[in-house]
Amino acid sequence: MSLHLASIVMFAMSTEVRWPELLMFGALMGCGAVCIEATRRLGMPAGVSRDLLSAWWLPVALLLPPVYSLFAPIVLQVLLQWRVRATVLYRRVCSTAAIGLAACSASVLFHGLVPDSSVLSRGSGPPILAAIGAAALFAVLNTALIAIAAHTANPDISWREVLWDRESVLLDVVELCLGVTVAVGCGLNLALLVLALPPVVLLQRSLLHAQLQAAARTDSKTGLLNAAAWQREADTEIVRARRTGETLALLIIDIDHFKRVNDTHGHLVGDQVLAGVAATLRSQLRDYDVVGRFGGEEFVVLLPRADIHEARRVAERLRSRIGRMAVPADDAMITVTISAGVALMSVHGDDLIELLAAADLALYRAKELGRDRICIPVVQPAAPVLAEDPPLLVEDAPLLTEDPPLLIEGSPRLVDGPPFFTEDPPLFIEDPPPDPQPL
Q1: Is 252 exposed, middle or buried (0-12, 13-18, 19+ CB in 10 A)?
Q2: For residue 436, is pLDDT > 80?
Q3: Share of the chain above pLDDT 90, in %
């Protein structure tokens, strides 16, 4: 912000005020204000969002002296804060400074290559290429400055989340094309802004609508999929796995004694713990794994193409990493542990409801055994089939229990109880006992 203010002072002292330039600046800012008002009813999703306002401050950078590009984001960001959504002030200030410095750099580059900006409207090749290069510089610097600010505010967030992905690169290209096109039209005749405004408004509304739809699928505290969106994604993966015959595993993860964190440190700290656990889950899972918040302190993870051994390794890695996570609160560092239940498709269930039920029972067993552990349901052996020929008298028949005894954690003693074992050592009971011999 200090650099932004210093740049305003420096360029303002060396720039002569001209009424045609003030008129063009006012017209472009007016178009930006119309876009903001036209999309105000839609609102704006929280976090970093795209609004296509570059279609107005890029022409300012290309057609006017650099000082105007430093003022343009101040005007539009004030309108966003006042008319659309009031956010934390320092974030709005950081965004304004990042956009202003990036636009000023692009303006200096373009005017250094093309001293007379009016030639841009003639359509010749070199000025157009210079404008494209300046717009690209603006996109790179703006993204880099915002990414640095976001990573500084939250060091746990990965650089990948705040830098480019395929979608953001596509949006940058769209903004670049819009900005250069509007600049060419504005250079031809300022009245052409009337023709440029409606398509820009329509594109902006479409973009914000898509972003709001995406925001409706995510949990506001963790950024993960909410329960409804996760269930839709999981159903799709299960149908695909059933069609292709691939393996698939499901994890239910619960933060141990999370209520104590809320009661001791407050719900705001509890929300930080939830966000920290969510960030750890995202960092340790593959891009195509489906992770969401199931409610409260429970999370669900779907692992496509994972067998039972891979699911155990993933669950144990998550348990270990979250156990080493520390969240600052006042003068203390909060650590938490997790318990998890694991279920495998076609072994513990054939649809989402059955898999959730099996994993939930495994999670309940993990809590019973002391928490901070992973549990997997043991496959229930098939009931022995009695030969009908020759028939057995009831009094001569061997006694059969409904639930055969299970070995738990490798112990040689027989116990009664639900069919579960903990991860160490992994023990399966899959082979049925030999058929009883007639007496």
Answers
A1: buried
A2: no
A3: 43
Find the DSSP H helices in 114-154: 125-153
Token output for 249: 């595993």
Query: Do 336 and 325 contact (CB within 8 A), yes or no?
Result: yes
Under 8 Å between Cβ of 214 and 208: no
Burial 25-41 (b: 16+ CB within 10 A, else e): bebbbebbebbbebbee
**DSSP assignment, residue 384?**
P
Tell me how far apart the alpha carbons of residues 86 and 99 are, in angstroms, rounded to a whole number.
18
CA–CA gap between residue 266 and residue 271 (Å, rounded):
9
- Alpha carbon of 324 to those of 12, 230, 274, 301, 317: distances in Å? 52, 27, 15, 20, 11
Mean pLDDT of the region 197-217? 81
Q: How far apart are CA 117 and CA 196, in angstroms?
A: 20
Distance CA 225, CA 260 (A): 25
| CA 330/CA 262 separation, integer angstroms | 14
- Between CA 217 and CA 5 the distance in angstroms is 39
Q: From CA 262, how far away is CA 225, in angstroms rounded?
A: 23
Number of H helices, E strands in the chain: 14, 8
Please give the C-alpha separations between residue 125 and each of 29, 114, 142, 198, 346, in angstroms, as whole numbers.
28, 12, 26, 28, 62
- What pLDDT, on the 0 to 100 scale, is given for residue 427? 36
Residue-averaged pLDDT of the chain: 81
Query: What is the percent of the chain with per-residue pLDDT over 70, rounded to a whole number?
Result: 80
